[in-house]
Amino acid sequence: MSNDSNLNREIEEGLARADEMLRREKRRQWLYAFLGLFALVCAFLLGFLIRPTNSAAAADNLLYFSSNRSGKYEIYYRGVDGKSVQITHTSQGESWGPVLGPTGILYFVSNESGQPEIYIKTSGNSMRLINSGGKYGSWDPKPVSGGALYFVSNRSGKNEIYYRTEAGFTMQVTSTAGGQTQFSVP
């Protein structure tokens, strides 16, 4: 009889351990489901806080992008009708990297002058150079409020971040040591 009671006790202990393992597994699954849902919510909310990348920008049901469909890179927009319209027509270079500023101004980079420089789109097919690095290029515009702009240039001999005020005053923001070129733009 003691063998039967030992066997019953071992079975009961085994079942209790199995139940505990199942409870732990269910808690783990709920935790993973909660963390997955939390990650989705965070990604959704961050989508409202992060600006579009340099490859495309969207506003007023228009998607701005660069494409080489004409044989060289130019800026286009696509409306809700699905039609793409070329809006830059560089004669000696290419245009790429459209970025919409907070006020709806379209910034982009073009090498029309021989160096990559930052331009804005004006009325019609016109574009206006707003930031020239002289013999050095300027690229990767990141517009901020009030018409100010962060951008990258190698005018110091290394790729550095600069800040340009609405009035056109420019100052260097980063100063990387040696040959480093690692940084992030605000």
The CATH topology of the largest domain is given as Neuraminidase
Structural class: alpha+beta
Tell me the β content: 25-35%
Largest sheet: 4 strands, antiparallel
Annotation, overall tally of beta strands: 12
Number of domains: 2
Give a description of the structure.
This protein is an alpha+beta fold. It folds into two domains: 1-50; 56-172, Neuraminidase. It is built from one helix and twelve strands, in the order H-E-E-E-E-E-E-E-E-E-E-E-E. The chain has one helix at residues 2-49; strands at 56-59, 62-67, 74-78, 84-86, 95-100, 106-110, 117-121, 127-131, 138-143, 149-153, 160-164, 170-172. The strands form three sheets. The chain has a four-stranded antiparallel β-sheet with strand order 1-2-3-4, with no helix packed on it. A hairpin with a 5-residue loop joins strand 7 (117-121) and strand 8 (127-131). The longest helix is centred in the N-terminal third of the chain and has 48 residues, at 2-49. The radius of gyration is 28 Å and the shape is elongated. 21% of the residues are buried. Residues 43-55 have low confidence and may be disordered.
